[in-house]
Design brief:
The structure holds two protein chains of two kinds. Chain A is of the alpha/beta class. Chain A folds into two domains: about 170 residues, D-Maltodextrin-Binding Protein, domain 2 (3-Layer(aba) Sandwich); about 200 residues, D-Maltodextrin-Binding Protein, domain 2 (3-Layer(aba) Sandwich), CATH 3.40.190. Chain A has 16 helices and twelve strands. In chain A, helix 2 links the parallel strand 1 and strand 2. In chain A, helix 2 packs antiparallel against helix 13, helix 8 packs across helix 15 and helix 15 runs antiparallel to helix 16. The radius of gyration of chain A is 23 Å and the shape is globular. Chain B is mainly alpha-helical. Chain B has two domains: about 50 residues, no CATH class; about 210 residues, MetI-like (MetI-like fold). Chain B is built from 14 helices and no strands. The chains are: A alpha/beta, B mainly alpha. Chains A and B meet through helix 1, helix 2, strand 2, helix 3 and helix 10 of A and helix 3, helix 5, helix 7, helix 8 and helix 12 of B.
Chain lengths: ~425, ~290
Amino acid sequence: MKTMLKTGLSAAAVSTLLFAGYPASAETIFLSTQARPIEEAEAMRNTVLGAFDGEVDYIPQEDGPFLNRILAEAEAGDVSIGLVGALHGNFPVLAGADALAPVDDIMSSLGDRKLIGTFVELGKLGTDKQHYVPWMQASYVMAANREALQYLPEGADVMALTYDQLAAWSANIQAATGERKLGFPAGRKGLMHRFFQGYLYPSFTDSVVTEYRGEKASAMWASFRDLWKTVNPRSTSYDFMQEPLLAGEVWVAFDHTARLMDAFNQRPDDFIAFPAPAGPEGRGFMPVVAGLAVPANGPDRAAAAKLIDYMTQPETQIATLKAIGFFPAIEMELPDDLPRGVQIAGAAVTAQSASADANPSLLPVGLGDKGREFNKVFMDTFQLIVLRNADIDETLDRQAGNLRKLMEETGAPCWAPDEPSDGACPVK
Amino acid sequence: MTDATQEDLQDKRNLLDRLLPRWSVGQWLFATICLILCLWVLLPIYLLVLSAFSPRDAVFAWPKAYLPFDISTDTIAFFFGVRGVFSAFLNSVMVAALTMVISIGLGAPAGYALARFRFRGKDSFRLLIVMTRAFPIAILALPLTVTFIKLGLYDTVFGVALVHSALALPFAVLISSSLFMGIPFELEEAAWTMGCTRFQAFWRVVMPIATPGLAAAAIFAFVISWNEVFAATILTLQHPTLTAFLLTTLSESPLYFRFAGGFFLVVPALVFIFAVRKYLFSMWGIANR
């Protein structure tokens, strides 16, 4: 038995020697929550980063392990990650744990680039330091199968729909085909909460937080509950709308451009993209911004700065757009030779932000690590009112209480479209 | 004419008799259940393989083609081209092999002790072993990563193998203890009376009987390690295992990649189990005795 134990231990020891001794690499580790799908990750490595003069190991990761890893490295004081790329919502957690080194110096060295002002402001996370450099942007739009267009209600322009027209359209489709073919990404990994925060609430109440309950909000939830009667019931399991669109289960859908791109790219002649509908308070929509940040005490700050410089150059921004469907975070003209899918989505994104009644809504700011709880308030309200048919006013009263508590805990001031506030954003 | 029809009928009956074995109702029921169980396991694998080798649009087509008319290796070929897949595959194999060695190296002696010796706290020890599985590794993620970074085990094959061994050990201990319990103590005693030392008796008498069962426990450890995602994801950065490498990207990739990736993950495990299946059967043989 002793020999056996010894054999086991020595085998383990030998393997330690054999396998644990990886040579320390000089390449910059670029950890990101974006471009996770395998094809996009490959495109990032080969196309986008291929032309970079230096060694980069691009590692895409889900939000959980991503945060865990950066926080763990910061806590252990042994940082191997050179550059991190993530959506705006992930940065407050990292900045809160002092895991990021401010990038003001890198930012000022990018002088010639016209980074979009709103995003630069977002990158400060409500402080006076720049925590991330805007990397790329996207938005949520609607997509439709061309077959659905024949059922558009009379007089409706698909590029300038209203929520009433969307409801009529969806009802027409149901009447004609006998199936509920409007779809929303309300699955576990879907981005449905953004629909409420950036689209429905701003369109109906011109607010996200302040007017959480009230007449306008009640009317909005009542009409959305009606709309849901024509929505495909499998919506609660959809994460990426490109799949039900390609499968033909859904003809009209709302989702993130990157999560529709596959449908546009695979069958560009069958699908169109168009702006989200407008409500009484305008066409609410939400631009999404991703940023690049440098971990505190990172291995090679100069290399990270060089990589940020490379990633924000116009040529790289176009390459990124072609590879993963995120639009430039700098002000620039888009070339004509883009892939069909990008063209389709890009037209809708432009039409949406340029529409006369546009009512842009920003991503939540200042919630710190409470972003998830903020989303949960909206999803819980949706589940109670729409899926479980609960009383609207009663539910809104209760959820407004939860929201108020959350806002007071974090002390986050209002963001557009709510009026700026001193101190925590109030909930009426 | 009637005779002819009668003969026809007779022929048909003979034919049926020849085609179908004469089984009792119980045997038919047994066969049906066997068939259902086989389909239960094989059908998803068949569909997975079929979809992995279909052209991309066919994956979304409905109704599905259930026979392989249209073969395409596009998606699978893409996987072989992805940078890092091969090294991730090697890492997976090394981690799984190390896990096997460690969990059997530590688990078999523990199992032997549980089976042969009486000692204070034996039952609570047995319970404690199972308890190690009671803590979800997710809540240990941050402290575990911090500790591994400090120890220098972070992002190494050995580090991941250690965690996997911790997960596989309870099974290794319990399987091997029931295995040693199934081997009569008298055999060892007989060996002692013939002049063997305690260790020689174990090595020459007990081990040959126990080897197939231990091999089965090792396979179990291999499979646990091969399938484990979470620890492998958080504890590696540049040297992930295949499961960690693929699963993080697959769950959000288009459907056809998920099929191809599933195929990619399933096949090596299947090949391994086929290679060692005779040991598995012999373990069950011992367990039945």
